[in-house]
């Protein structure tokens, strides 16, 4: 949908002409690897966070210390790899979806030595960034690996641009959470080196980051899908051309129903998971020990 290949048009309809090209399209290796590492990081922080929560309840739980250390070490390895893969993914996106990159960085006009906008309030009416905090030339350096590299602005693409604000903010949530995950994973690995016990401040921090991977991943998906607009299939099929005969009220009711259902399921999952982690492995006092059956049956 982002870098479509392998399709053909037959009687005005799009069909798959070569499934290998459809699947192994130009962005496939970057998206696939980026998502795999994101999943690994999400799981690592989930394990580490729940283990930390257990240790806050029972500091002598040796099993929880082992799982905490495992989660931290996995995160400490995967997090910097994600930075490398993310950089490669960004360069690929710049090649195939430059309008998305322009929206991510809130670059309105094409130019060389583009600054990296750390924070701003993108103003779609004036085509500028209000209250911007920028680092000169850093966007060009990151995107083109040349401080004087040229980066296309949103003005280059006419009406074929995504809504800037949600893409801009979601990307910064993803990067911000990811940066904190790197720092926390490395700090945790250092604090637990040589079998040392983590302090309560570190345990509370990891417990607070239990579901951080979900936040980063969902923010990344918002960037990916909103950043593709106004295309459903980049350069091939517009979203407006694929809209069915559904009224705005019906669409809003359906979306609200889905959002409410999944929100309730997510809250229930988080509550149950943290409750079970806090209890840990329970051994019934006074229960008879299991003995192996005798050879005589």
Can you tell me about this structure?
The protein has a domain at 7-103 and 162-243. The protein has nine helices and eight strands. The protein has helices at 19-23, 28-57, 62-96, 98-104, 138-144, 164-191, 200-208, 212-226, 248-279, and strands at 7-10, 13-16, 111-112, 116-123, 128-135, 150-151, 231-233, 237-238. The termini are far apart. The model is unreliable at 283-290 and 292-297 (pLDDT under 50).
- What oligomeric state do these chains adopt? single chain
Order of helices and strands: EEHHHHEEEHEHHHEEH
What is the terminal separation in angstroms? Answer: 63 Å
As a percent range, the share of helical residues equals 55-70%
Q: Structural class, from secondary structure content? A: mainly alpha
Strand order of the largest sheet: 1-2
Give the helix tally: 9
**Unreliable stretches covering 5 or more consecutive residues:** 283-290, 292-297
Q: Report the principal-axis shape.
A: globular
Alpha-carbon Rg, integer: 24 Å
Could you tell me the number of beta strands? 8
């Amino acid at each position: 949908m982002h870098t479509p290949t392998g399709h053909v048009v037959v009687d005005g309809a799009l069909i798959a002409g070569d499934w290998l090209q459809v699947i192994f399209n130009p962005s496939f290796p970057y998206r696939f690897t980026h998502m795999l590492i994101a999943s690994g990081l999400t799981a690592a922080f989930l394990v580490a966070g729940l283990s930390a929560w257990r240790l806050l309840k029972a500091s002598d739980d040796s099993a929880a210390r082992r799982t905490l250390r495992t989660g931290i070490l996995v995160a400490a390895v995967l997090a910097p790899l994600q930075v490398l893969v993310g950089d490669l993914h960004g360069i690929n996106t710049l090649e195939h979806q430059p309008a998305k990159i322009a929206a991510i960085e809130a670059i309105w006009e094409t130019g060389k030595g583009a600054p990296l906008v750390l924070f701003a309030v993108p103003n779609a009416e004036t085509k500028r960034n209000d209250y911007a905090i920028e680092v000169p030339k850093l966007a060009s350096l990151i995107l083109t690996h040349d401080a004087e590299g040229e980066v296309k602005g949103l003005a280059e693409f006419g009406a074929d641009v995504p809504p800037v604000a949600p893409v801009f903010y979601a990307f910064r949530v993803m990067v911000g959470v990811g940066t904190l995950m790197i720092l926390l994973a490395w700090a945790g690995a250092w604090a637990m080196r040589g079998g040392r016990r983590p302090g309560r401040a570190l345990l509370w921090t990891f417990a607070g980051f239990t579901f951080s991977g979900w936040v980063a991943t969902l923010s990344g998906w918002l960037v990916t899908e909103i950043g593709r607009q106004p295309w459903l299939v980049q350069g091939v099929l517009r979203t407006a051309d694929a809209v069915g005969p559904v009224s705005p009220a019906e669409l809003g009711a359906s979306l609200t129903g889905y959002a409410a259902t999944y929100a309730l399921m997510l809250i229930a999952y988080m509550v149950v998971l943290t409750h079970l982690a806090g209890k840990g492995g329970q051994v019934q006092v006074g229960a008879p020990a299991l003995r192996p059956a005798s050879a005589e049956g």
